[in-house]
Aldehyde dehydrogenase
Amino acid sequence: MSHPKTYAEWQTMAESVKANLETRAFIDDAFVDAVSGDTFETTNPATGEVLAKVASCDAADADKAVAVARRAFNSGEWSRMAPGARKKVLLKLADLMQQHRDELALLDTLDMGKPIGSSLGDMAGAIGTIRHQAESIDKVYGEVAPTGEEALALVLREPLGVVASIVPWNFPLMMTAWKIAPALAAGNSVILKPSEKSPLSALRLAQLAKEAGIPSGVFQVLPGFGHTVGKALALSMDVNCLAFTGSTGVGKQLMQYAGQSNLKRVYLECGGKSPNIVFADCKNLDKVAQHAAEAIFHNQGEVCIAGSRLLVENSVRETFVDKVLAAAENMQPGDPLDPNSFMGAIVDRSQYERILDYIRKGVEEGAQLRTGGKSLEGPGLFICPTVFDGVTDKMAIGREEIFGPVLSVFGFDREEEAIALANDSDYGLAAGLWSQDIDRIMRVTRRLESGQVFVNNWAGGDQTVPFGGVKQSGNGRDKSHHSLEEYSELKSVWISLGSA
Ligand code: NAD
């Protein structure tokens, strides 16, 4: 096994990776320029360096790719291939990703600013998802329905057809894997639209997919903007399913596009403003405070399930917040290529300005700024871990998704009050609670309006449990056999016996 790379080794490797970037769209098994010939720049937010000019696809490319995907689907080469054979190809893809793990991790780090250690964690998640879904697909059985002997009734699972996956930039390759693994395993043709802020790892993945033997037209990648190529895919009359991860605002638009076009299925994984509830009965508040800080500052706070609302029982609030501040002190941003950096750079200038705007609003609205609230000198886009205490549910920083390293602390006195505060949100993606009292844990867990609840941890889970939200956090589920089910249709077959 190779030793973990040093800072200097990552810097050296970054130079060679930058010299060999694939920047064209991947359509019908070939890397091609956008039909318009247009490109857009992708930039390293830690340095301001333009990494590449990438093909900027639009509706013409979307039409081309959809026609190719449909042809591939109808050919049956992948869609009717025995599940066990599809499994082998996907496992080969996972092996290739493992072989090129460091390079894929570097692409995400360079493209969107996350620390390399965190990108390596994402690669384990991405590869794990491909393996899990590949291993699952030849263990899915259809049903024989209970009938009298005059009939045989079957319930079959069949792939949907053409799936368009539209993904965000915060975990570029991991979000991609969560979408494409079950969709491909189920036999669909998949068109991936990566975020315009982080297109590079998806294009490298296309190279590996080809090498793994995924047939022509079954997996295609269209880099470009949401309002151009993303919208065209969403409005297409020949896409059967939109699998989306991104903001709630765009999720709502996609539902409209589906209604305006062909009623395609729409699975949404959207935003959050997740409550993390700390009860005073915890034995080890130091440990809980460390987790509470990691829950918001991991990935610079650019995490859909960031624990951005910290609800602390007032009897321990003062001491607890001091402990969170001490933990935050050790999480200052640094060069994403340094394996010791906990936080990296903010993805781009618009996101950076948006976060600083929220910090200004927090101060204006009367919350108490306990630490951070500032950025580091450029050219890189770095914001220090920021903690506001005394936040209320009337403040913008208490309600809206900031998607940056900004923690809002609320106090509460009673369990009922904590539950009411936690549920007072348009979102329902994740919630955490920390307590030693099992009765309380189960009482509160059942009442939290949330797709997932973390008890005495934050972000716990593996490939076996679904990931997704309720309310305006969306309706889809990534990971586990539940995501596999989303990418297939049920077909009921009633066979009359003895009548022909
Ligand atoms: P975004 O909604 O701006 O963009 C997401 C994707 O949608 C991008 O590829 C973008 O190009 C595309 N898009 C934008 N407008 C479009 C349109 N009109 N038609 C079609 N496609 C369009 O989100 P973002 O800034 O990339 O990501 C951050 C958001 O993602 C946050 O709200 C975060 O909570 C959410 N997120 C959710 C999860 C989850 O699992 N629930 C995971 C990660 C991120």
Remarks:
- The mean pLDDT is 98.
- Residues 7-270+474-491 form a domain with the Aldehyde Dehydrogenase; Chain A, domain 1 fold (CATH 3.40.605.10).
- The chain has 16 helices and 21 strands.
- The pocket of nicotinamide-adenine-dinucleotide is lined by residues 166-170, 175, 193, 195-196, 225-227, 230-231, 234, 245-247, 250, 253, 269-272, 304, 401, 403, 429, 469, 473-474 (CB under 6 Å).
